[in-house]
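= Tokenised fold =
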Amino acid sequence: MASKKGSAGRILEVLSSGRGSLRGRDERIVVRVHVDPACPADVARAVKSALVPVRSGAVVEVVGLDEPVEGLEAPDVVLVLVGEGDCRPLVSAYARSGVGVAMVVEGALDAPRVELPGQAEGLVGIVASSDPEALPGQLAAWLASATDKRLALAAGFPFCRRAVADALVSRCALENAVVGAVTLIPGSDFPVMTANQAKLALDLAAAYGRDIEPARAAELAAVLAGGLAWRGVARALLGTIPGVGALLKAGVGYGGTMATGNALRLRLELEDAAASVPESAPREKTAPEGRVQLGPAQDGDGYVTVGGGVR
């Protein structure tokens, strides 16, 4: 009974700290896109179609390959749509300044080789796809790995939500696997794992643009119930397979967290699908595409075109 009360206390503690998830969701995130006029038209259209912000804190700046960027807001991540021009100095400059930058191309061999020191080289990615329909998924995966503003990225750009959710679930599952493997005091792993899963539930809700509301409390209760069930599975296995306790608890911690996280993600995706509007309906909080803005983006802006732009 004391264990259950302690776990419930941790859930309430995590719920009260859900403000951190909301702060992460509401962070401002700026994605800058440099466009070579000679880049493949299908690639440009696929990127433009995917990068549609749905929250005021998400901003897309579209800039020509050689357009000046002085005076513009510092980007969180940069995409370079590669064409015939030499984009290596631009890519190198961003990477050396600590900004993640990806070269978007039809084929990996189309991306030029950029010589950089080890740390800066790790900030350069290649997003390659000859299929415009597959490009958004690959772009989302890179963006999710390239910024620490994952919650803001997912909330602001719906096409990134699955990639961010998968990353959040995998990270929490690995953490719980470690907790299960190294816990020295019997029973002490369950509260920690449950708290991690509860925080995961709040982060997933924030990534999908949700507020902390009664429905989230129901999800946290389900997480607690699921944790109790997985704990029962672990105990049953320990009774039948002695001598491999740490390995079993790690496996159950990992598998249980993956199952719980994916169930939460699926519920959020179903909610999004049920609430979706026809493509012909106007999108809220999105600025007109063709507007030209030469100064820093302001709150409430969505799509910003500087000089050239995506065709």
Q: What stands out?
A: DSSP finds eleven helices and six strands in the chain. Confidence is low (pLDDT under 50) at residues 281-301, 306-311.
